[in-house]
């Protein structure tokens, strides 16, 4: 049974973060379709409980690596929504000065080492961060978020093997959202549960409902503490669902609208959280409404900030390509 005896402030923070991600992604979807945001955009809608549940168990100084759905992870780790919005708008006030965009957003100050346009690109970055912690004799943890499709890439196996051999302070979080681009899990993966692959590396694993922030948090706390205490890595598989298409504008001919609607009605992590904390009298309706009003105001302010921020100057195009020489 998942523990619900948690501080009210933590529950409020979960709802705030999950709702911020949802409203941010909805606004990005709207603005992209209106032609106001350049590049490609991949949304995190439906997976909010996984990112928030894991990141709320981390310290600010811990590290995460992300996927091409990086906005959700960035906001879950505590990033400034205004700078996130500005980055997607391509403005110089964004986290990467408007030159990273949707798939390369990062904020090193909170340990967010970057979204990644390469499937499976975050594995070895997380292992590198975990190795650096071990060599420094620190107590930080590196978390690698990845999708079910990425578990079929070579970097998955390389990273898990190395992390297990060296007992690195790493946690691998599979956001099994059932779809690798347009391919369902069962057509490309021989196992039903990605978590069973951890046994190949003598690594503990667990499977949780990725739409239940309580369950995700509980599993994350255990895995993160194990890593922090020198016990080595863990694979946590969060079963969730990608509500939107692979990218904004995806015609989604590979699945039916009935399937998506059914998932949203039954497994929406925000709706389920709202009902649960009310039914169990963990939070009051007015507290939740106040959070909704706060998020709405912050999203509108973020849009205003992005729209009024300048674009990078052309002569800045090659800035930040290389690290400055250090003595």
List keywords for this structure.
Rossmann fold; 5-stranded parallel beta sheet; two-stranded antiparallel ribbon; oxidoreductase; DH_E1
Structure explained in plain terms:
- The protein is of the alpha/beta class and about 325 residues long.
- It has a single domain, classed as Thiamin diphosphate (ThDP)-binding fold, Pyr/PP domains (Rossmann fold), CATH 3.40.50.
- The chain has 11 helices and 7 strands.
- The strands form 2 sheets. The chain has a 5-stranded parallel sheet, sandwiched between helices. The chain has a two-stranded antiparallel sheet with strand order 4-5.
- Strand 2, helix 6 and strand 3 form a beta-alpha-beta unit.
Per CATH, what is the topology?
Rossmann fold
CATH homolog superfamily: Thiamin diphosphate (ThDP)-binding fold, Pyr/PP domains
Work out the helix count: 11
How much of the residues is beta strand, in percent?
Answer: 5-15%
Task: Indicate the structural class.
Answer: alpha/beta
Main sheet characteristics: 5 strands, parallel
Shape: globular
State the helicity in percent bands. Answer: 40-55%
The figure for the number of domains is 1
Strand order of the largest sheet: 1-2-3-7-6
Output the CATH class name.
Alpha Beta
| Oligomer kind | single chain
What's the CATH architecture name? 3-Layer(aba) Sandwich
**How far is the first residue's CA from the last residue's CA?**
55 Å
Give average pLDDT, whole number.
95
Radius of gyration, CA atoms, in whole angstroms: 19 Å
Strands, count: 7
């Amino acid at each position: 049974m998942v523990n619900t005896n948690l501080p009210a402030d933590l529950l409020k923070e979960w709802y705030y973060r999950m709702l911020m991600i949802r409203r941010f992604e909805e606004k990005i979807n709207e603005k992209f379709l209106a032609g106001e945001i350049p590049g490609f955009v991949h949304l995190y809608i439906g997976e909010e409980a996984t990112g928030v549940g894991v990141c709320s168990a981390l310290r600010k100084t811990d590290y995460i690596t992300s996927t091409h759905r990086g906005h959700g992870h960035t906001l879950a780790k505590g990033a400034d929504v205004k700078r996130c919005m500005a980055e997607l708008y391509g403005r110089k006030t964004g986290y990467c000065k408007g030159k990273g965009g949707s798939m390369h957003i990062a904020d090193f100050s909170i340990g967010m080492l970057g979204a990644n346009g390469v499937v499976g690109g975050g594995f070895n970055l997380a292992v590198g961060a975990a190795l650096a912690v071990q060599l420094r004799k620190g107590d930080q943890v590196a978390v690698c978020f990845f999708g079910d499709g990425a578990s079929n890439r070579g970097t998955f196996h390389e990273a898990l093997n190395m992390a297990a051999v060296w007992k690195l302070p790493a946690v691998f979080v599979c956001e099994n959202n059932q779809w690798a681009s347009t391919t369902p899990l069962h057509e490309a993966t021989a196992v039903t549960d990605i978590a069973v692959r951890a046994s190949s590396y003598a690594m503990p694993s667990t499977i949780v409902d990725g739409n239940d922030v309580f369950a995700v948090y509980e599993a994350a706390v255990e895995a993160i503490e194990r890593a922090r205490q020198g016990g080595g890595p863990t694979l946590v598989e969060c079963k969730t669902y990608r509500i939107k298409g692979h990218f904004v504008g995806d015609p989604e001919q590979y699945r039916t609208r009935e399937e998506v609607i059914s998932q949203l009605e039954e497994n929406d992590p925000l709706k389920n959280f709202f009902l649960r904390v009310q039914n169990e009298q963990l939070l009051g309706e007015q507290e939740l409404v106040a959070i909704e009003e706060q998020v709405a105001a912050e999203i509108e302010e973020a849009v205003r900030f992005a729209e009024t921020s300048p674009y990078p100057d052309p002569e800045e195009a090659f800035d930040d390509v290389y690290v400055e020489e250090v003595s």
